[in-house]
Design brief:
Length: about 140
């Protein structure tokens, strides 16, 4: 039985999943065919094989969900996806998360760094909404708000 018949996804959820998985494939294909890719082929961990494998898994999931694998992703959906990814990545750069990379005076760094990261996150959230997307509540933390 395919996932298409077992998951009760509405059309908006299907669009979100389809666009995200197709963008993942496009991003990975860009890496796969980039000028630098040849340097990494054939190593102990063959990055090219790993990338190809992930693309196959993503395309397989698209097919199991009954979602188009070849439909281009609209510009607005690309903008939304990029903004969402960077909102999450910026959250990981906040002081309380940077400690996993080594000792850090969290409070002092947070007072200086986090407001700048939050400003970027708010700008990306506004960009997401301007492109017709929705910023999930709680997808990033704003100090004092």
């Amino acid at each position: 039985m395919s996932l298409q018949n077992t998951l009760p996804l509405n059309p908006e959820q299907q669009r979100k999943l389809g666009a995200s998985l197709r963008l993942l494939c496009e991003d990975l294909e860009r890496l796969l065919y980039s000028a630098d890719a040849a340097r990494y082929a054939g190593g102990t961990l063959d990055l090219m094989e790993s990338i190809q494998s992930i693309i196959q898994v993503a395309r397989g999931l698209l097919q199991e969900l009954g979602l188009a694998t070849d439909r281009p992703v609209s510009f607005s959906a690309q903008v939304v996806a990029t903004a969402e990814v960077w909102i999450a990545r910026l959250e990981d750069l906040k002081a309380h998360r940077l400690v996993s990379y080594g000792p850090l005076p969290v409070a002092a760094v947070s007072r200086v760094l986090d407001p700048h990261l939050e400003r970027l996150q708010r700008a990306l959230a506004a960009l997401t909404e301007a492109a017709g997307g929705t910023v999930l509540k709680g997808s990033f933390e704003v100090e004092g708000g």
